[in-house]
Amino acid sequence: MNVNVLTELLDGVKNGTVSTESALSRLKALPFEDMGQAVIDSHRELRQGFPEVILGEGKSTAQIISIIEKLRSNGSSILATRIDAAKAVAIIKAVPSVQYNSDARTLTFMEGEFKEKGKGIIMVISAGTSDIPVAEEAAITAFMMGNRVDRLYDVGVAGIHRLFFHRERITSAGVLIVCAGMEGALPSVVGGIVARPVIAVPTSVGYGASFGGISALLGMLNSCAPAVTVVNIDNGFGAGYAASLINRKD
Fold this sequence. Notes:
Layout: H1 3-15, H2 20-27, E1 33-34, E2 39-40, H3 44-48, E3 54-55, H4 61-73, E4 78-81, H5 85-94, E5 99-101, E6 106-109, E7 121-126, H6 132-144, E8 148-152, H7 160-164, H8 167-172, E9 175-180, H9 186-191, E10 198-202, H10 214-221, E11 228-230, H11 236-247
Parallel strand pairs: 3-4, 7-8, 7-9, 9-10, 10-11
Antiparallel strand pairs: 1-2, 4-6, 5-6
């Protein structure tokens, strides 16, 4: 349940168009609803401005479908992450209204029209094409949370001129998310040319000595660019969420 739905419900009780019993029935699922294998946090959108997000990894298709249906019944938008293609086919068959992004591995449904909540543009940058799945998870998350999103992909330090060609776009963004594997150098470069927060996302892309993203993570944590903060390896969702909170108007 979001603020608008709750306000309409309370106004309805106040002006007599909604009975007390009906209102109580609508509110009984707050602040959470126990479904057995899942406990739905139906109060999260009221507390934090965005409904609970479904992590698809480790959940069965049936569990994901039941959670989506419950969130939809509460009037919530849907964002599910780490959904593989096989699960996506089955879920879309059961809930045709959701959309699948195969790069980001996300399922989404937006309740109502897009409402811009950000005060600026969130730019998502990837060092390489191989980093796009993580970058797309960040971009989809930021968009679902009400932000305009600009994407700039495959502009890593091996061809730094590709990045500087887009300098005007980069410097006009309100918040930047920079995804990179290998040695993870790109966020430091971006942090050195902008006066905005930079959220660095190490990816697990790279050869043996990258240690599944640990090299990039340590490189980003040791960045000399003071505007750079770092999320966990491959955590595009966390980067998109944090960027949205930074960019929020209120």
